[in-house]
Amino acid sequence: MSDIAAPARRESGLGALVRQARYVISENPVTGFAFALFVLIVLAAVLGPELVPYDPLASATSEALQPPNAHHWFGTDQLGRDVFSRVIVATRLDFFIAVASVALVFLMGGLAGVAAGFFGGWTDRIVGRIADTIMAFPLFVLAMGIVAALGNTVQNIVLATAIVNFPLYARIARAEANVRREAGFVEAARLSGNSDWRILTFQILPNVFPILVVQMSLTMGYAILNAAGLSFIGLGVRPPTPEWGIMVAEGSAFMVSGEWWNATFPGAALMVAVFCFNLLGDGLRDMVDPRRRT
Amino acid sequence: MLTMILKRAAMAIPSLIGVVIVTFLLTRALPGDPAAYFAGPAASPQAIEEVRVKLGLDKPLVVQFGHYVVDLAHGNLGTSLTTGQPVVTELRNRLPASAELTLLGLLVSIVIAVPLGILAATRPNSLLDHACRVISTAGVSLPVFFTGLILVYIFYYRLGWAPAPLGRLDVFYSAPPQVTGFYLIDSLIAGQGEVFTASLKQLILPALTLGIFSLAPIARMTRASMLAVLSSDFVRTARASGLSSFTVIITYAFRNALIPVITTLGMVFSFLLGANVLVEKVFAWPGIGSYAVEALLASDFAPVQGFVLTMAVMYVAINLLIDILYGVIDPRVRLEA
Amino acid sequence: MTIAPTLSVEGLSVEFRTRGGTVRALESVSFSVEKGETIALVGESGSGKSVTAYAVMGILDPAGRVSAGRAMFGGLDLLAAKPSQLADVRGREIAMIFQNPRTALNPIRPVGRQIADVLIRHGNVPRREAPAQAIEMLRAVGITDPTRRAKAYPFEMSGGMCQRVMIAIALAAKPSLLIADEPTTGLDVTTQAVIMDLVNDLAKELGMATIFITHDLALAGQHSSRIVVMHAGHVVENAPTQELFDHPLHPYTAELIAATPDSAASLDELASIPGSLPDLRRADLPPCRYSERCPRRIDACAQPLPRPAPGASHIVACWNSLTAKPLAMRTPTESAA
Fold it and tell me: A270 vs B143: CB contact, 8 Å cut-off?
């Protein structure tokens, strides 16, 4: 019994992904909302600095500590800077930190994990030891230690976040690589003369990516919280750079005396961003592996 | 039972070794000249040299590591630049403050999260269930220091219900005679009811902040675990045997559901110990977290490293305890047939 | 003057809400069990035998719902009873044992305590004496060294021993009806025989009625006095055991008998039953759910099934049953009333 109509063209990977995304969004509007929010955040990060009404660094002490009003939607801080502009501009830095951390930990943890799963033996043992040692520390404390030792720069914050999340990614990647070690396409690649490292980087790692992408979304949220936490205790970005965590830190002294807008708006921005990444992560999980829906 | 405890303790040793190595590397990984860091920003080149020799920073790394381990064995974690006190002494003095806060925070968290998880599991898809899920996702997204600040704003500034966030006790009271270092316990032992109430009042907001923060993973795991256990064969048998609802849900289902929740506690503690540092800053709590943060501001490095090492060792010990607790609750692990 | 049956199931219909539609799992199931009688509910997996038991016991999955029928037990309709009335019955008057005894017992509770739980709940045994009584129950079900075994956990016992424990739990309150849902599945053949004998002996001792649910017709034949054959949620035949084997009336029963290995038949002679169970979610299910795979189908089979004659000892739900003289046959127009 053959089809009379011509068989449908094999969907390209991207086309199938988009269709699946559309299906999941229609099933679960919350994921759609998270998607929209994510786009908004990206827009704020990319276009924000060009579009904000005030220079985030321009201080005007005569206008210090004004509550939200028509001129300054989020009020002004203790140096008279417009809180709204600072919050929007800070999106770029926090988003960058999140993306950079996640990219770094995917490469580090992903590669180490697939190597451990693929080669086994000593590689596996060493990667395992490193991961166990990292996990022996309370993670934020380790991040503190790393940044305190290496110095407060954005690069070190990104590095510390990546190191602290390394064990989780290594473990997931290792499990996936183990499964795929004997897979057909790996054999084919080997037979056509590819070195093991090429196979790892170009065959296995890309296959592990969809599984890790769920975790990556969640890690983005964690990375922002981590950076904000470090900034809060003085180990993060230095003033006057606008970053949500440091804005909350600077504003915290004023919360006690009632000038709430300094800390609340950047804090709310933090919450919204992290919440968005978490929801997105849940939605991605539904797309990638509906069996694990909570 | 004893064999299980010893075995678990033995498994903790490699972790301890790893921790010591990493903290050592962190002390020597400072960019630039470690001696300069330890001497402080105001030191002259001569003072820096003295520090370098005194701390043995001119010796090969392996030798330094040997000294480091020997120092640790003697309980020597260096001296604070700002206070001139041995780090170990200050950590020891301030540890009870942090411990009291963290444990109370965990208690608050468990007392809210576990019943919430049980109720959500026994009434699937109800309003409570959805509330539990929203709270779990929101709880994970809130920065802990922000929660603390909001609580201070609402309950202290706006409503005036909570005292000023200025540490463990109001200025009018003095600390109870030290037995455990926990003000709540010590004040009860000394029969000082007013001090007890005063300390409790100061503890409520920071403990609540920590509790809200760690609520989410516990509630989520309790709910998931209960859901799985409630549909298991042995719960069906218990129901068919006509046992009371309470017996079925608590004695049969919950005790079994507790097992994965306990293993989650390890992860929860990792978050809690980190969050502790942030909460101590918000509430001016004189614990080891704020000790490290104050030292950081003054570029005083020995306390920071002592702090990281102490936290890590405590965390290894906590994980060991959790492992043992796990063995106590689950006879399959304990008897290891 | 006849004594009322211990349990009388009348016209029981059960449906399940699923993602794929409503599954009409049971339709008009009727049978009864006399005092002290052992009957067997026999059928392929998916025939609805376990669902029947779960419905009677009131432990259906939340997605399941009794849509019609009664289950009369001592003047009480179990399907319409209030939870408080059921609480007195379940586990005390009616007990149930399950397959896979290892997973059907609480893995982290000593077996003695599991028996004691039921004794305390139903057996009017004071808490202090329950442990000793539990040990006696273990002895009664043939477990050697019961004092030591009472402290053991299910994972430390064999499947056969776990099943004995389950029997002890079920019989602790001396019920008048025992439902045994595939109690021998997963046990080796020797243990199967031993367990079945144990159940039969205890039933005789207690004057207890038993419903034995199984897919194994031979086993049913050896241990029950009456067999109720089920297919796709319908009762298709109900007859005393010997009568059923000597003169099966329903085509499905005949196929079942042919498919059952007994000591004489060789493997080559084992027939398999043609076709498969119909999809119970279909809206267009025929009145006789076997008709689509039945070799004896006639036009009359599209009509609603014949009603059984009241008081008949051998009931069959078929328009074209195997004997030349159909016992309970009426013409289609008469039955439609």
Answer: yes
pLDDT on residue A182 = 72
**Cβ neighbourhood burial of A190 (10 Å; 0-12, 13-18, 19+):** middle
Please report where in the chains the tokens 């065959």 appear, as a residue: A203
3-state helix, strand, coil split of chain B in percent (to 5) is: 75, 0, 25
Subunits that touch chain C (at least 3 Cβ pairs < 8 angstroms)?
A: B
Interface A-B: count of C-beta contacts within 8 A: 150
Domains of chain A by residue range: 92-279
- Contact flag A132-B141 (C-beta cutoff 8 Å): no
Q: How many CB atoms lie within 10 A of CB C72?
A: 17
Provide the token pair at A224. Answer: 């922002």
Question: Where does the pLDDT of residue B27 fall: very low under 50, low under 70, confident under 90, or very high at 90 and above?
Answer: confident
8 A C-beta contact, residue B214 and residue C82: no
Does the beta-carbon distance from B242 to C92 stay under 8 Å? Answer: yes
How much is the pTM?
0.81
How close C115 comes to chain B (CA, Å)?
Answer: 10
Residue C22 φ/ψ, nearest 5 degrees:
-90, 125
Measured N-to-C along each axis, helices A244-255 and B144-152 cross at an angle, to the nearest 10 degrees, of 20
HSE toward the beta carbon, residue C218, CA cutoff 13 A? 12
Q: What is the ipTM of this complex?
A: 0.87
- Residues with Cβ within 8 Å of A256's Cβ and at least 6 positions away in sequence, in order, are B152, B153, B156, B157, B164, B165
Q: Does A155 touch chain B (CB under 8 A)?
A: no
**Structural contact between residues A166 and A105, judged by C-beta atoms closer than 8 angstroms:** yes
How far apart are the C-alpha atoms of B147 and C35, rounded to whole Å? 67
Residue with tokens 């500590």: A65
Of B143, B304, B311, the CB nearest to A267: B143
Indicate contact of C with B: 3+ CB pairs under 8 A: yes
| DSSP strand pairing (C315-316 vs C209-214) | unpaired
| B237 contacts in chain C (CB < 8 Å) | 96, 98, 104-106, 166, 169
Q: Are B238 and C106 within 8 A, CB to CB?
A: yes
- Interface check for C222 against chain B (CB to CB < 8 A): the answer is no
Q: How far apart are the first and last CA of chain C?
A: 30
Sign of the four-CA dihedral B97, B102, B105, B106: negative
Q: How many CB atoms lie within 10 A of CB A37?
A: 17
Tell me how many residue pairs between chain B and chain C have CB atoms under 8 A apart. 77
Check if the beta carbon of residue B23 is closer than 8 Å to that of residue A149. Answer: no
**CATH of region A92-279, choose from 3.30.360.10, 3.40.640.10, 1.10.3470.10, 1.10.3720.10:** 1.10.3720.10
Chain C contacts of B256, Cβ < 8 Å? 106-108
CA distance A104 to chain B (A): 21
**In sequence order, what E strands does chain B have?**
none
C107/B234 touch (CB, cutoff 8 Å), yes or no: yes
The answer to whether C139 and C171 have CB atoms below 8 angstroms apart is no
Q: Which residues of C touch B241 (CB under 8 A)?
A: 90-91, 95-96, 117-118, 121, 169-170
Question: Quick check: C98 and B244 CB within 8 A?
Answer: no
Mean pLDDT for chain B overall: 85
Write the CA distances from B105 to A128, B202, B261, B269, C220, integer angstroms: 32, 13, 17, 11, 60
Half-sphere exposure of C30 (CA within 13 A, CB side): 15
Instruction: Write the pLDDT tens digit of every residue in B62-98.
Output: 888 888 888 888 888 888 877 888 888 889 989 999 9
